[in-house]
Specification:
Keywords: Methyltransferase, Transferase. One of its GO terms (molecular function) is methyltransferase activity. InterPro entries: SAM-dependent_MTases_sf. This is Class I SAM-dependent methyltransferase. The protein is an alpha/beta fold and 531 residues long. The chain is built from 19 helices and 17 strands. Strands 6, 7, 8, 9, 10, 14, 15 and 17 form an eight-stranded mixed sheet that branches.
């Protein structure tokens, strides 16, 4: 009989079948369902599954993706998973050791990495002589079998195959009441006490956040974090005078760079500084900074939330809300104006009377639907006969390399293929192939993104010019905000000088030159005192 049962997995939800199976395996019995359920599966909250004997094997729970939470693939945080496992072990009469295994890049040495984690964390040397591996995933089981470990297939051992834990969790997310009959009482208990069923439904059904907790699978968050940090001083300088002390929230806070500057303001030392971020990579960087002592104010908090999922803060509880480069993402990844209006309403609802929402973002030009002429350089790169049909099929480095080699005119052709918001353009037959006619908003959407070759497939999922200044004023007034005179659209002349003018010319249909339009907006919106 083995001394250990290694049970690798994410273990977000535990089932009654697992309790029966593991108990039989740990005590040397045959782990099938023919003999009925073990009492441990139905043990009550006081834990009546029986005493663990000295000759029973110890179950080593290798909890993978232990550093991930609030993602579609990993909705439940490790410490809650660990709590459920410990409760499960008591009720099922199992001796258990729980070991966290942090997520790693995909590797065919996953089994070896897990065994080393167990040795380093729990001091247990698991070998084929003293351990059986319980695993129902064929690819993972094959890795352990290749190292000589005997394999117990768990759900794969039984015909018909019992419901697998992940399928039960998806049933929960789909509001299928049968999940409660399949889940183990330990899971039901921990889920109820910590409201994890609501969390699972919210995360799994999230229409915006991907499996790994980001907005898009192609986004390089290291690049974004660096860009946020570089721009933080400029952003804070633009909004500082409008910040009202009290409860200050930065929604979409990135890596927390603006809150670091707010933390240094003597006049805000009594304020609560709160960051909200949806992207796992950036949220984890915020938590790391706080742990490393980046913030002097003890009242700095970070939350991982998707603001499209509903209210984040209680009504009339926030003095200042800041958003930077966020609203165009809500527009792009949600249901455009419907999603943006819900967001603006949620900001209004959580703002105290007299409080302020400060929003800095990109902005569409006035008259964004009118047709203009755009002359683009054809001499700054290659001009292939046709764009690549599917850049997403290429490795990331090849995507950036290919785009960097295209002329500005050729990049427009590629942009039209990859851009998630279709637009039309018509080449002008002037003998150069450099001139096209298209809507002004589409022209600016391309021009403000054409140089993002490192994050092209992410950037082409977003629309910068969905709203112009008049649209913003109408939306804010409709929700109930008053627009401060400090608000308004503006043109980023650095972008014009360094990105637009060197490779593009803008003109009316008659050929007369046009000034470059506005590119950004600053909104200072106040909730009236008497509301």
């Amino acid at each position: 009989m083995p001394r250990y049962l290694l049970f690798p997995g994410r273990h977000h939800l535990l089932t009654r079948f697992q309790a029966d199976y593991l108990h039989r395996l740990a005590t040397g019995g045959r782990p099938d369902a023919a003999d009925g359920d073990h009492a441990g599966a139905d043990a009550g909250p006081t834990g009546t599954a029986g005493r663990v004997t000295d000759d029973e094997a110890t179950v080593v729970w290798a909890v993978t993706s232990a550093n991930h939470e609030n993602t579609r693939r990993n909705p439940v945080p490790y410490h809650r998973r660990e709590a459920a496992i410990e409760r499960f072990s008591v009720l099922a009469g199992l001796r258990s050791v729980v070991v966290p295994v942090f997520d790693t890049a995909e590797t065919d040495r996953f089994a070896e990495v897990t065994l080393k984690n167990v040795a380093a964390t729990a001091g247990l040397e698991l070998t084929p002589e003293n351990t059986v591996v319980a695993c129902s995933t064929p690819q993972v089981a094959a890795m352990y079998a290749g190292l000589g470990f005997p394999i117990a297939g768990v759900e794969a051992d039984v015909d018909p195959t019992p419901a697998r834990p992940w399928d039960v969790l998806l049933g929960l997310a789909a509001d299928d009441p049968s999940w409660r009959e399949l889940a183990h009482p330990a899971t039901l208990d921990v889920y109820a006490r910590y409201r994890l069923d609501d969390l699972v439904r919210s995360v799994v059904n999230d229409p915006v956040v991907g499996d790994e907790g980001g907005l898009t699978a192609t986004r390089d968050y290291r690049t974004y974090a660096e860009a946020f940090a570089d721009a933080a001083q400029r952003k804070w300088a633009a909004v500082r005078e409008h910040v009202r002390p009290g409860r200050i929230v930065d929604v979409g806070c990135g890596a927390g760079a603006v809150l670091e500057l707010a933390d240094r303001e003597p006049t805000l030392r009594e304020s609560d500084l709160i960051g909200v971020e949806v992207a796992r990579h950036l949220y984890e960087e915020c938590v790391h900074k706080k742990a490393q002592g980046f913030f002097a104010n003890p009242n700095v908090f970070f939350y991982r939330r998707n603001v499209l999922g509903g209210a984040v803060f209680a009504p009339r509880s926030v003095d200042t809300t800041m958003t930077f480069a966020l609203t165009h993402e809500i527009w792009s990844y949600g249901d455009q104006m419907a999603s943006l209006r819900r967001f603006v309403q949620a900001i209004y609802d959580h703002t105290v009377p007299g409080g302020v929402w400060i929003n800095s973002d990109v902005c569409g030009p006035d008259g964004r639907d009118r047709t203009v002429r755009l002359r683009l350089s054809t001499t700054d790169g290659a001009n292939p006969a046709r764009p690549h049909p599917d850049l997403a099929a290429l490795p990331a480095d090849q995507v950036a390399e290919r785009l960097a080699g295209l002329s500005t005119r050729a990049r427009l052709d590629q942009f039209a293929v990859d851009y998630r918001f279709p637009f039309g353009f018509r080449p002008v037959d002037d003998g150069t192939g450099a001139v096209v006619e298209l809507p002004l908003g589409s022209a600016m959407d391309f021009l403000t993104r054409k140089d993002y070759t490192d994050n092209w497939l992410s950037e082409t999922q977003e629309e910068f010019c969905g709203l112009e200044w008049a649209d913003w004023k109408a939306l804010l007034a409709d929700v109930g905000f008053e627009v401060d005179p400090a608000s308004g659209p503006y043109r980023n002349d650095w972008i014009v000088t360094h990105r637009l003018a060197p490779t593009a010319e803008l003109s009316a249909l008659d050929g007369s030159p046009l000034d470059w339009p506005v590119t950004h907006v600053l909104l200072v919106a106040r909730r009236p005192v008497n509301t």
